[in-house]
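Q: My labmate handed me this sequence with no annotations at all. I'd like to see what the chain might look like in three dimensions before we decide whether it's worth expressing. Could you predict it?
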Amino acid sequence: MKKTLLILITIAFVNGINAQSNSSVAVANPNVEGLYATPSICAKIIRLELSKLNKYSVYDAFDMEEVYAQDSSYRNNCLSKSCLIEFGNKLKADYMITGSYDLLANKIVITLKMIDVKNGTIYKSGLREFTNQEKELQRMTEIVMKEMFSVPVNNELVDRLKFDNDIIMKSNVGKVSNSGPRVGVGVMTGSFYEYANRSTQQGGLDIFPAVSMIGYQLEAQYVGTDNFSALAEFILNVNGLEQGKFIPTLSILNGFRFGNAGWEFAFGPGFTLTKTSTGTFVNDVYTTNNEWDDIWSSQWDPNSSTYNEHMQAPGYTDVVDQMEETLDDRADVKGAFMFVMAFGRTFRAGALNIPVNVFYSSRQGGGIAGINVGFNVTKSKSTIGSGL
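A: Here is what I predict for the chain of 388 residues:
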């Protein structure tokens, strides 16, 4: 008895599926407002996504031409339930589907409804708000259609296309630019510390080994989701103005921003202008101040016409260290590369962003460690296709 009951249930279930798959559906041209897509294109998208579900026999555009030829009003103005029922009866379709595609401010709203022609009722309906990415109309329609028929939807696809009221940071939905001015301070380390403290007569800067930093950061997001963003950052700084020095730097960093708190890590190369010379530190020279000291001697020393003459001058008689290249403010200007690492967080107050970063700029023999702070105001979000 149980086996017989199970067989009957199985047969009924299979017949129900076959009955549904044999049911016919026709798509009337939807209403379209504010988009470049035409009603006929949107109808083709609906037919395509409906056919992919493999649940119904879907009328194509040619199956409907005969009715259109008899009454052209069905082509663009058949949106009400009564009209769809009448249209469906003429087509001899079991169901009719139509809806609307509307651009409202910065979002696209898709509404679909499915009419049971025989019973004269709304069989299924669906509505979704999406971000303004018209090129993704087909995927938007896929989401609405699958939700109407209780078919699993790719959650990542939904997250990328859904409309968010908050500022969003998504690779193909929108982005936030954190570009803006930067100010900070850096402390010199290693050979830079010695270079800052060295007297100008020996090619040093003769300044306090900490410099101000004033600059501007340009930022471009190239990939991201709600909780992760990858950034290209271009930072131009001018250092040391408060001590009468002009030390420009340009850094090109690859940055990663995590979570709603805006934690960020960045690294990349930098470029600056520098002055170096080849020479030595002469150990324990008896100076004019009656003190023993280490003196930097190079071809740029003003006390001799050439480096060789200077090295043979009286007083330079002790052991000379190995020849090396070091910073020398008397030398010619040339370019130099460095490596920059930074870690920080962006604090937010409404539309105001305040990025705070600690950094280390490294070169052979030393570098600069410091902190900088910036600010910018998020005015609007833009699509990836619209440029930076």
